[in-house]
Amino acid sequence: MSAPQTTRLTVGTGSAARDIAIEQRKGTGPGLFWLGGFRSDMAGSKAMALDALGAERGLEVTRFDYSGHGVSGGDFDHGTISRWLEEAVAVYGTTNGPQIIVGSSMGGWIALLLARTLLKAGTPAHGLVLIAPAPDMTHELMMPEFTLEEHQAMQANGFVDQPSQYSDEPYRITKALIDDGEQHLLFGSVIETGCPVTILQGGQDPDVPQSHAIKLVTHLLHDPVTLTLIPDGDHRLSREADLARLRDAVLRQVEAQ
């Protein structure tokens, strides 16, 4: 099987234009479409496990970096859910036929928004596989954890820098990200995807609690949903056993065609 093809795609115009890096493995369908998390990139262990599965089974696999992430252009501090969703829609347009959208953490939120967009267009996704999905994370997971001082800093400076266990550098959370997130909140009404949904959730996840995954399930009223709770699983779910679960979840949806 040949290596993935590396391409670049310009999304947006004028000062909003950004250069998006894409890795696409040619193959049959349904394809696998990867959406990474906040501050992650397309070369992580879960993304590469998908690529390996595509190589093994002859499936199309599409991975990309959001603007401000990985090897894509753009400034991370300009990133918003609207901006990253626009990029996901644009990259999805380079794929061939129905796709299984695999989203991790924030990528799970963007996957649900992308699925809704596709459903409205009459071209629903083949399926969704969500790993520690974080829909509405700006308002459900970020803001509730802000201290009074952080709320004040957000108003005064337009951002808050928070330490992260995943990086030596603090994660910057901007007011633009928080404000824009309000446009894309999903909880509070039925979430329509038009396809089967599989959720993999760690029971020891310090960033996205299992209650968040259960709350998501209660909003998916019209689509078949499978929730797998991994009692000792963390947020990343990148251990060999976790990657095997991801592979199995994806293959079940591939074979359901």
Describe the structure concisely for a colleague:
The chain is α/β, with parallel strands linked by helices and 257 residues long. 34% of the residues lie in helices and 26% in strands.
Radius of gyration, taken over Cα atoms and rounded to an integer in Å: 17 Å
| Structural class by sheet pairing and helices | alpha/beta
- Sum up the overall morphology in one term: globular
Tally of contiguous helical segments: 8
Order of helices and strands: EEEHEHEHEHHEEHEHEH
Mean pLDDT figure: 95
Extended strand count: 10
Beta percentage is 25-35%
Q: Looking across the biggest beta sheet, what order are the strands in?
A: 1-2-4-3-5-6-9-10
Fraction of residues in H or I helices: 25-40%
- Terminal CA distance reads 23 Å
Which residues sit in consecutive blocks of at least 5 with pLDDT less than 50? Answer: none
Q: What kind of sheet is the major sheet?
A: 8 strands, mixed
Describe the protein.
- The chain has 257 residues and is α/β, with parallel strands linked by helices.
- Helices cover 34% and strands 26% of the residues.
- The chain has helices at residues 45-57, 81-92, 106-120, 137-142, 148-157, 175-181, 210-217, 240-255; strands spanning 5-11, 18-25, 28-35, 59-64, 99-104, 127-131, 159-164, 167-174, 197-202, 225-230.
- The strands form two sheets. Strands 1-2-4-3-5-6-9-10 form an eight-stranded mixed β-sheet, with helices on both faces. Strands 7-8 form a two-stranded antiparallel ribbon.
- It is globular, with a radius of gyration of 17 Å.
- The mean pLDDT is 95.
